[in-house]
Amino acid sequence: MYTDKPASIQSEDCFQRYEFSKRIASIVAKPSIDKSLIIGLYGRWGEGKTTVMNFIQKELPKETIIVNFNPWLFSDEQHLLKSFFTSISASLGASNKTKKEKIGELLSDYGGAIGSVTQLVGFNTDGLEKLGNKLKSTSAEELKKRIDELIIQSGKNIVVFVDDIDRLDITEVQYVFKLVKLVGDFPRTCYILSFDDEMVSAALSPKYGGDSKSAGYNFLEKIIQIPLKIPKASKKALSKYSLDLLNKVLDDNSIDLNQSESNEFLEVFDNAFLPIMDNPRLGIRFANSLSFSLPLLNGEVNISNLMILEGLKIFYPSLYDFIRNNGQLFLERTDRDQSDFNSKKQKQDEIKKEISQAIVIYDEKKQKVIIEMFEQLFPQLKIIYSNSGYADDIYVRWTKEKRICSSKYFDRYFSYSVQEGDIPDNYFENLVKNFEDNSIDEVVIKLNETIERYSAFDLIQKLRMQEGIFNEKQSYNLSLALAELGHTLPKDKNIYFTSTYAQSAILITRLIGIQSKKNQLTLLLKVFSISKSLDYSMEIHHWLMFKEGKDPVNAIFSEKEKLKIKELLVSIFKDSMTDENFFTSLEDGNLWRMLSWWINSLQHKKTLKVFLDKHLKKKNNPIFALKLLKVFTPTITMTSSADYIPRTYKSGFFQSNFDAIKGVVDVKLLNDNLLKLKGLNITEINPSEVSSQDPINDETLVSVFQWFIITQSIKG
């Protein structure tokens, strides 16, 4: 953190003020025998007035008696006078020990004569009785004359520096100028008064001429003999000073921005921050704000975005609060999910209106700069202001880059922490290192620990977002670890409209794609071999073939390799299958696919025929037959609007379903078994009369199947 300590030596002069200060010192160093000199050092808050005063003191001759007086510590006129004369007497005494008592007592008496002195802080008087006796016999004018003589005899100049005048209230400001003008007019004495002239003139106006600021300035002209403005810091110097501070903060946190990140920040800094930076203190506040937030968020947010946001807090505080309190306004994606063009346009106009109201206090040029800055932080606003649009993968990229425009990261920038439930990026980076350094069993343990600490949803989403960062070894180990635990992941649909379970399977297919060509098939077969669930293996296969079919040009596997993959899965199912688990070891959809592969397997199809004949040949196993028919009947999951509870059921049976089961089993033999079902009134129902969404009961299902049997027989 930077403490805003004023500079005091020439090497610390960042804004070319030393020569200016040196010139003032040369004026002050010349003796003025009869009257004091009053210099006004004008500057706004943070412009460096105290620094200039320090530089002046450095350039004054050694024999100069320097008095630093801060009126901000005293609340009334009496205490102000006491402190003022105490400061001068102490400085004079320190300069010349032999005259300490003499000058000090005279100043004490003089202060008492005009301010009812009782005891001066830091100066030991001889007591109230002695002071009272002196005041009886000596007038204030006489005391003043004797002090003047002693100062002239000392041959030394006195320079009184009075700082922080603009921090005083109106009455206290008036006290100070009364003190300097009427009481402190000593020979060989110079007063250097440092203050914001606009603030002070406004404070003086009510007492010296009315409410207008000009009245206060008129009074200042009577007091201040040499009015001087602090030299204006150039934009170039302010820029260098501020950027040096910011770079130091980055270095302290071991952060090295890449060229793109640097350019992104500098564009906003040059266009939005620097034009309104008029003093070094703003640069210090900016660096301090970043210095506070960066250790808390390093590795958890986009650093360039964080720097821009911290700058907003300093230079546009109301806009910072506006963003903080209106996140949805900036995160809204208005290029989709709208029922029609008019509703989309209406939403965009509402957002523009709210933003316009927030920036109306700025002129037109500044508003344009602010909008550009908003678009830098929230590119989705370009949809509104520039009629631009972004593909879905761009939004995913913004999340990967931890940008504030991602709803996943927005709150982090304002909470200075990772929200409860979110996986910290630093934690995630360490987790990824484990994928390379640890055994598969150890990776499984780490993944389970992460799921327990956070959630499976957050873990898989994070892995999907960062899948492009993994090297071959990491992707290999992670694939095998997921193969072991993937079957335990929830099947609730909440990531990209698919479940965490499905997303983990998709992730494995992406990780296999990272492998070199020679290792891809080997890894996939090993994944299937160690998977604890054949259903999960079938899920991986589904998404792998989905990807292959969607992008055949970049397909990973040849047709021969795809056949080998199916043969392995059939073999695993065949070896684990029993009469008891035939219908339970796989979900119906997966069993449908498995049986379709099996019956076409040159190596294993005979085994399936034997198994089916075993259960159907005698034509007295209607339960087995009905279960097999249901395997090839679509499974639907619907959520009721009444209670929002998802329900799974069988629905519809159509030509494609009949053709699929016909390819696996002798449908006439299957039908002979179905006719033995008891309690069902089996008729012929045309499938066109059956809904593809509503539940279908056993009686209707078998009746529709009967229709196909009879229809197909007639055709035959």
Oligomer: single chain
Which structural class do the helices and strands define? mainly alpha
- Weakly predicted, low-confidence segments: 116-137
Mean pLDDT: 84
The end-to-end span amounts to 89 Å
Pfam families: KAP_NTPase
Protein name: KAP NTPase domain-containing protein
Overall description:
With 716 residues, the protein is mainly alpha-helical. Among the domains are: 10-229, P-loop containing nucleotide triphosphate hydrolases (Rossmann fold), CATH 3.40.50; 235-415, no CATH class; 618-716, no CATH class. Helices cover 59% and strands 6% of the residues. It has 34 helices and nine strands. The strands form three sheets. Strands 2-3-4-1-5 form a five-stranded parallel β-sheet, with helices on both faces. The protein has a two-stranded antiparallel sheet with strand order 6-7. A two-stranded antiparallel ribbon has the order 8-9. Helix 7 (170-183) links the parallel strand 3 (158-162) and strand 4. Helix 11 packs antiparallel against helix 17 (364-377), helix 22 packs across helix 23 and helix 25 packs antiparallel against helix 26 (517-530). The longest helix is centred in the first third of the chain and has 19 residues, at 77-95. It starts with 17 loop residues before the first helix and ends with a helix. Residues 116-137 have low confidence and may be disordered.
Name some characteristics of this structure.
two-stranded antiparallel sheet; mainly alpha; elongated; five-stranded parallel beta sheet; 716 residues; 6% strand; Rossmann fold
